[in-house]
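Cross-check.
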Amino acid sequence: MSGNPSQLSQYFSSGKSSEAQVTYTNELNEAITSIGSLQLGRNEQSSSEPEVCRIFSETLPQPKDPSAAFFDLIGNPSRTTEQESAGEMSFAPDDGYSPRVAVGSEADRRRDAWIPSERTRKCLISASTAAPGTFFPERELLTMPGVLLEEELGDNITDAVTTYISEAEAAQRRVLAAADVTQDERGLRELVQAGAYRSAINLTARLLTIYGQGIGRSGHPSKHSPHSLQLWFTRIALLIKTKEYQVAQAEAEPFGQLDKPDLFYQFYPEMYGGRPGSIASFSFRLLLAELPMHCGKAKDSLTKLFNMLATVKQMLRNLKEGLCEDGNPMEISESDRNDSVRLWTGRETRILHSIVNCALALKDYVLAMDILGQLCERDGAPRHTLLSALGRLHLQLGDVSGAEVCFNEASEIRGGAPDLRELVDRGLLAMAQNSFGDAYKFFHQASVLEPSNVMILNNMGVCLLYGGDLKEAIAVLESAIQQNPIQGLQESLLLNLCTLYDMESSKGRRKKFALLRQLSRYQADAPTAILEKLYG
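Predicted model, tokenized:
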């Protein structure tokens, strides 16, 4: 990265690039929150918001209780009991497999419902009606995944410290490895909570070997279960988190769009007793639909997302016509039908959020605005939040007056004293008007509400730089790390700080090595791009 201040990154969202998100600058912190399901680095605010309007820096979610299954960490937050009893709409229903829910319950049926393709439907009928041991599907109808990484991922931070600082300092580094935890979901949860994502990827490979889907097993038939598919969901999402996009794409290829017969319960009548529905979670479907966008193929993602949207809309029509989700004339109580409509309406919203982000990646701002407008009109939608997102999109387009209208309407809907979001919106608007002094004041007020919020401190530093105070800008960003090194040592802030060091002096390499030491001390993983910036 050059010293051009326009290349400084900010925490306006958690997306892929400024051209794919509503932001003010060119580079943004990459995260997997856009996949909707894996939320290892989930933003703190409600996941009902499209990624475009998320403004919080990343923090690791805490498990709901000590006995929670490990995929609770990577699933979407479920509705609370109070929300369910009140009949409120859920914009992010829980898709994680939960062993605490009785198998075959109405909650299972509702959660797992999906409309298979016609070819898959016919195959499932054959599988469920054939005599045991007499059904042999064509090979092309089987999903045959396998781990493609032949070697476990190493500790790239240790490698960097060894090469550019010293072996002695690298020897002091302590990070959890796959062999250091129990070889089960509890161990995987421990690695995820510690931020040791590369080690977690290694453990998923070991656990998938149990299902005959480990190294060298790609192209070999094997049975699937909710647990094995959640392991794959976790693995692919972690590969995206660590920016191993090509590996993620290659390992995800056998799954397609999760429509093959062996990914449905009906394919295994002897195991599930005729239970209908998809073994793979809805979140896994969303992950695979969004994956091409991470690999620079946003058009492919948009096509897959619209296909998902069409299926969900058909399921909602079926429910409203008195049928079950897949169109079968199954008897469902009125309360269960309402719950199903609520669940799938929430999932429809999640797909629309993904379409917004995909449209932004393609610079299709008309589509993004249209979808955001539709979201604003939905019953129970967080209109002030969506209007804030719409305002930031106007800013990206250079429409300052349009952004101001959206921000003002959002403020009127919310009412009361300015909250964190409104202060950030005002700061962004001031920056767009080149009023960096005013912008700094708004961000400073926001920092009073959340003193440890890295996004706000980062933006304060950018304002100081544009105001001509380089040293103070560096001091603010360094203080963000000093106050909370675990949260502060994030990609966007580190890229900004390295850029400022380059602008300050040609001798900034020593300060970058100091950041590398802090990464070694406080972080289990770091993207390769960050490490290259620190020692390049």
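The first helix runs from residue 81 to 86. The chain is about 55% helix and 0% strand. Passed to J.P. for a second look.
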